[in-house]
Amino acid sequence: MTRLTGSALRVTVYIGENDTWHHKPLYAEIVHRAHGAGLAGASVFRGIEGFGASSLIHTSRLLSLSEDLPVAVVIVDTETRVREFLPQLDELITEGLVTLDDCEVIRYVGRDGSQDASQGKTGRKGKKSL
Prior knowledge:
single chain; alpha+beta; two-stranded antiparallel sheet; 2 helices; 10 strands; 19% helix; globular
């Protein structure tokens, strides 16, 4: 697993919750590919309201519009590794927005064999600072 120090690149993919890739949620495919590529981490965030290229506002406040809410997939790793991953996003995303932002990683804690799986916590020996 990659340990980041200092400067990094954050890629954020903005898509719809109902977007799919081969009958699976697109956000799940992006996360699985990022994991398979050995990237440091990826998270999916579900929005409560937003609009995109269609100009239709999707919101969780109205039952009739609560479908296809906005989703953001955020991936952080070194610039080189993120840029090497971008062609996979080109293959997956037909409609959406991808942004790249320079960022600084303060601390990253990786998992290793000393993790207590039952509590989801890493013991002292498993902590690593950047």
